[in-house]
Amino acid sequence: MKVDLTAGRLDAAGYLPSPNSDERPDGITIDLLVIHGISLPPGEFGGPWIDALFTNTLDPAVHPYFQTLAGLRVSAHVLIRRDGELTQYVPFQRRAWHAGVSEYAGRSRCNDFSVGIELEGADEVPYTDRQYQQLAEVIRALRQAYPAITPERLVGHADIAPGRKTDPGPAFDWVRLHRLLG
To answer: Residue by residue, what is the 3-state secondary structure of 129-144?
Structure first.
């Protein structure tokens, strides 16, 4: 797996462009990777709902929970589904809208300098073997393309938005991920 630096895309991922992105500030180095967890509706897996959320086509009438998301404009760079399928929504050189109000190491606005990777999952539900394998491959490819993403600069959404976010949650096995990364 590799990152095409010109296109800002993973060669192993399908591409579904999200309108929820913009240019990063001038002179920014991509040096943080944020892992998220997402399921729509909460605790349910599969279906078109995550794609719909990230492309602003989520119909709030389909499920009561979706009404709480009406008008929300968010995205991630990449989604890893339960079966390991990869979808990229935003080229890496662009700013995806995944972190919200956030801070890391004294720097606010983490979207400016980070890559956001969503795992289809829920805080209390173990992630799949295939997701860990794919996540490790994605991280290796990103580190090769963006060497400032060092092992210390791999965090969860909860780490950069404490008290506001809890993902990827206690079911995420950080030790396992670091073991896969070597």
So the answer is: HHHHHHHHHHHHHHHH
